[in-house]
Amino acid sequence: MSRPPIFYALAVLLGLFIVFLYGPIATIVVLSFQGPEGGLVFPMNGVSLHWFAQLFRPQSIGDIWGSFGRSLELGLIVMICTVLLSFLAGLAFRRRFRGSTILFYLAVASLVMPSVVVSLGIGALFEMLGIERTWYSSALGAHLTWTVPFGLLIMFAVFNRFNPAYEEAARDQGASGWQTIRHVVVPIILPSLVGVALFGFTLSYDEIARTSQSVGALNTLPLELEAMQTNATTPVIYALGTLTTALSLVVIGTSLLVVLLARRRRARFGSDAGRAA
Amino acid sequence: MLRLSNTAAYLQALPLSAVFVAFFAVPIALVVVVSFFSYETYQLLIPAFTLENYREVFSEAVTYCTYLTTVEFCAITWAITMVLGFLLAYFLAFQIRSMTCQMVLLLICSIPFWTSIVIRMIAWIPLLGRNGLVNQLLVGSGIAAKPQEWLLYSGFSVILGYVHLYTLTMIVPIFNSMVRIDRSLIEAAVDAGASTWQVITGVVLPLSKPGIAIGSIFVIAMVMGDFVTVDVLGGGQVASVGKQIATQLSYLQFPPAAANAMVLLLAVVVMIALLMRIVDIRKEL
Lengths: 277, 285
Description:
Chain A is 70% helix and 0% strand. Chain A is mainly alpha-helical. Chain A has a domain at 63-231: MetI-like fold. The relative contact order of chain A is 0.14. The longest helix of chain B has 35 residues, at 61-95. In chain B, helix 3 packs parallel to helix 8 and helix 8 (155-179) packs antiparallel against helix 11 (209-225). Chain B is 72% helix and 0% strand. Chain B is built from 14 helices and no strands. Chain B has helices spanning 6-34, 52-59, 61-95, 99-110, 117-122, 125-128, 133-140, 155-179, 183-191, 196-207, 209-225, 228-234, 241-250, 254-276. Chain B is globular and about 70 Å long. Chain B is mostly helical.
């Protein structure tokens, strides 16, 4: 079948867009392998792993590994909280309970609220209460205002398509509420829960706007990077960029693999719903 | 019907409610309150009821200038991401026939979304800088006599950064609306003699409106309040409202920052309210 001319025009547009998306990142990946004498821009002055090695020297700029550790820990905590909070709320929202509309709009408002305002509010709240701001208290809360609405919306989409007959069948066979959730609901929606977890982790790991006023004395990685780039004079920052991008790709790859495996397993064995021990 | 008691629903919604009340509702309410507070160098928050902060916001010429710049950035970014997002979503949803191919292309477009935003912005610097790749090419090929300064740390680079970061935010909801369009409508239009262009403007565009509205809400909210992109790609040469608020906060001037934030919020709410008339978000999931 022949394609209309618009197909080719748009295919070119998509190609250009993909170059536009990946071009800059590709540039810094290449530049991060600059030789020891190389600068922040092309041409390449030899090829080396010098700047990656530089990252592991204790005297290198900024608190890279400290902030990286904090971002990782915070990301994992946010991930767990996001999955739990949005899954539970997703279950609750299947019924219309009093206040459900307000709660829904609160979540949507939190999503579209300019981050600088949220950041300012949380900063002011802790300032007024006289509580010190830290990455594991105020910044955790700030991150949840950003990740949980996404999780909740995904859960809405999931439960809108969820057939309650499965649960009814489980209950008719005498399953308790917990057994129904553990052996019927969770296995069915597992790929979506992995999706929510992935969203939670990466959104938190990258978050900068809501973190800025709520993080306190010790920075997360994105804030450290932002601070570093203003006075970066060597390609060490590109090496760091290459490394964090690689890490993100590993996380995405792993999550995709988990989802694919779960699908394949289901295709082969059918759902394990109802196989409660 | 579900045999779930209301109590269970309350208990299930409780953790989420607690988080949103403590870290969203109360802080935002506090921003409103603090915007009327006064402040001194060594006391950040002095409870009071003064309109001084608002007077300050509206009396300074720089405020109007900053708001104008921010709205301009927002309008340009919105227009570009919307056109680009619509065309690419249309291509993916209607011109690509294999589902696998669709998913792979969508995945390729969304992978950068999962990588660090700051790094993606920093990555423009070696391309656009004074000695960057673009200038090397321009000068080397003789198109420009000397390196172009407007490429980086300018409104141009900031908008480029926004388009780079937020086009996907448009593509996904528009794509989502488009895949739900009943294909027989397209066939009917074609059978009735509509050209490809007429199908796009007469059938696809009106039915993608909810997706366009959702994407627009996100883009507008993110660009209007942004200070990170302006910071990295504007390099101190460009001001935006978000940046202004962030600067005030870096001097710990909470009350003026709060007043500024309230004005910003009002602007964003008005824009979003207009868009919400087009779409019922809850219906779209």
